[in-house]
């Protein structure tokens, strides 16, 4: 289930670093721990975007000038989503970088119909390899047009789907058809303009800072519809629970896919919306 969490921004013009996923990961982990549910203390099956809003760029990072900002949060588990949201909305305010935010309401994204061929865009970078303390392997560039790129994403995805525990061994075995094909026109334009679609990002794991390479590009994924749905709700690649690998369907208007969402627990404002 994917939701959009809308916050009021109390101090317009405040900033966060360009890549602030690690700040969000720390916040989200703290909220999960605050809830005290032992089943979710080490639960890794969730994903989230960067903070979305009207921004301007400076040397200090991204400055937000809209009165409201949005965070997309997603998990294949509705129970975990509700657990996280209930604990988030118990907080009167949260600080992310220099931003002072208060949670206001939640919208739920409709789950689209998935086929065995879906075109995605990256909301946050795809990470292919888990870093280690004494190796630079996770920072090496791998061309998205190389079969290894798709193979590494497939291996990590199958491991996560198996660990999630909602798919039978027979289903996991049936998911062998998998191929990620990058948008060649996009790659050509990026190269012609001498821009980058692959960068080095910081990530913290077990209180240790690592550097990893992340890729942001549109692609077509050929896979079973159940695999497509898991990618949509749980992300793709390594460190999805740290804000990497969130994707969205290409050529779809996000505004047409949301409706107000009411949790079972009281205390959350609802948005009066005509969206359906």
From TrEMBL:
<keyword id="KW-0051">Antiviral defense</keyword>
<dbReference type="InterPro" id="IPR045747">
    <property type="entry name" value="CRISPR-assoc_prot_Cas6_N_sf"/>
</dbReference>
<dbReference type="Pfam" id="PF01881">
    <property type="entry name" value="Cas_Cas6_C"/>
</dbReference>
<dbReference type="InterPro" id="IPR010156">
    <property type="entry name" value="CRISPR-assoc_prot_Cas6"/>
</dbReference>
<comment type="similarity">
    <text>Belongs to the CRISPR-associated protein Cas6/Cse3/CasE family.</text>
</comment>
<dbReference type="InterPro" id="IPR049435">
    <property type="entry name" value="Cas_Cas6_C"/>
</dbReference>
<keyword id="KW-0694">RNA-binding</keyword>
<feature type="domain" description="CRISPR associated protein Cas6 C-terminal">
    <location>
        <begin position="112"/>
        <end position="249"/>
    </location>
</feature>
<protein>
    <submittedName>
        <fullName>CRISPR-associated endoribonuclease Cas6</fullName>
    </submittedName>
</protein>
């Amino acid at each position: 289930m994917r939701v959009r969490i809308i916050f009021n921004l109390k101090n317009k013009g405040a900033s966060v670093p360009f890549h602030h996923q690690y700040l969000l990961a720390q916040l989200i982990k703290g909220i999960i721990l605050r809830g005290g549910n032992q089943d979710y203390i080490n639960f890794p099956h969730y994903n989230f975007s960067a903070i979305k809003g009207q921004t301007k760029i400076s040397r200090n990072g991204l400055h937000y000038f809209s009165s409201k900002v949005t965070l997309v949060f997603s998990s294949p588990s509705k129970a975990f989503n509700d657990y996280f949201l209930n604990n988030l909305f118990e907080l009167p305010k949260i600080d992310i970088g220099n931003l002072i935010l208060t949670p206001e309401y939640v919208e739920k994204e409709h789950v689209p119909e998935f086929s065995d061929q879906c075109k995605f865009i990256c909301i946050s970078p795809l990470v292919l390899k888990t870093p280690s303390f004494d190796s630079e392997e996770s920072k090496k560039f791998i061309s998205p047009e190389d079969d290894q790129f798709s193979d590494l994403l497939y291996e990590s995805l199958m491991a996560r789907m198996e660990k999630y525990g909602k798919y039978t061994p027979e289903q996991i075995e049936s998911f062998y058809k998998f191929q990620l094909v990058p948008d060649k026109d996009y790659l050509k334009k990026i190269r012609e303009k001498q821009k980058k679609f692959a960068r080095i990002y910081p990530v913290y794991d077990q209180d240790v800072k690592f550097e990893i390479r992340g890729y942001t590009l549109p692609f077509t994924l050929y896979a079973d519809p159940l695999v497509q749905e898991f990618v949509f709700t749980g992300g793709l690649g390594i460190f999805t629970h740290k804000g990497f690998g969130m994707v969205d369907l290409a050529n779809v208007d996000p505004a047409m896919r949301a409706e107000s969402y009411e949790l079972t627990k009281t205390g959350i404002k609802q948005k009066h919306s005509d969206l359906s």
